[in-house]
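User: I need a structural model of Carbamoyl phosphate synthase small chain from Ligaoa zhengdingensis for a docking pre-check later this week. Nothing fancy, just the predicted structure tokens so I can convert them on my end. Input:
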Amino acid sequence: MSYEQTTSKAILLLEDGTVFEGKSFGAAGTAVGEVVFTTSAVGFQETITDPSYFGQIITQTFPLTGNYGMNAADSESDRAHATGYIVREWCEQPSNFRCEETIDAFLKAQGVIGLYDIDTRALTAHLREQGTMNGVITNDMAADRAELLKMAKSFRIQQSVQAVSVTELKRYSATGERVGEVAVYDFGCLRSIIDAFNGRGYDVTLLPWNTPADQAAALAPDGIVLAGGPGNPEDCGELLPSIRALMGSGIPVMGIGLGHQLMALAVGAQVKKLPHGHRGGSQPVVDSGIGKTFVTSQNHGYAVDEGSLPKSEGEVFCRNINDKTCEGISYKKSPAFSIQFHPEAFTGTGDKHYYVGRFINMMNAGGNR
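Assistant: Understood. Predicted structure tokens for Carbamoyl phosphate synthase small chain:
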């Protein structure tokens, strides 16, 4: 196979007026989104197909992307969710026996607009200093920049959970001997979370985001997982009554990512927007309950405000080592806990799936039923 990188120009225009000029790859056109950066050195396909990146333009801080290519088995969902993708350099000739296509071909097929050959270190430093902001990628060099700037300033991620969730119930069978069933609310669920439970012998029933609590309980699952996803949790207020009902049902409940934030909101806590979010595969989290530190994978721009969590409702047991923000809550009135990070994607530890195992132990204990 041979590939040729384009010399067609493209730009990133941030809402503060800063311009980064580079070259176009992936799909052609114009894309607007929230510009974020991720520190992961690998997992670029998993990142692009992660539903929690809906509405965002992803910047890879690692300089080379795509060196082992793309293959269908590694996608975290059935499509790309990022609106744009920025790298320093992409690999024309990936080297891996599992490679099916280049990252450029993948982005073209998925309609994701890309930008390369820019100073991603300078962009990352700018976002760290100024905070996450909106931006526009375009390879239309004749476009009116005043109009592009207007687009960036007015952009807001909306109805994100509705956009990434399944619209009808889906079932995934356990690998090997079946031991039980887990119902998963799809707020932007990763395929690897489903795989983690399937691999432990649990059938998984994936539910649309707005499934009423009584319908989920009627499935008589061993446990319920709230998994995902993108956007501002405060935009999902309509879900809170159902989440309170689930937490009061006696069925064990586990929240992940957005599910963690929504469970906290359901018991009266508040969330806050982080300056530049936690994104990438090297986020250190300490679990004070077991005295261990985990290197975790994360993507979120909001965090639960620990001081707002009613002490009668829950207790924080995980915190981010870098900024001390809340990463995990144990609930006192329900067989339930939640975590901000991906439980199926630890890095460099022997405790992969530790929190999946903790939830399985909770299900085996039978909750309050």
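Before docking, keep this in mind: The radius of gyration is 21 Å.
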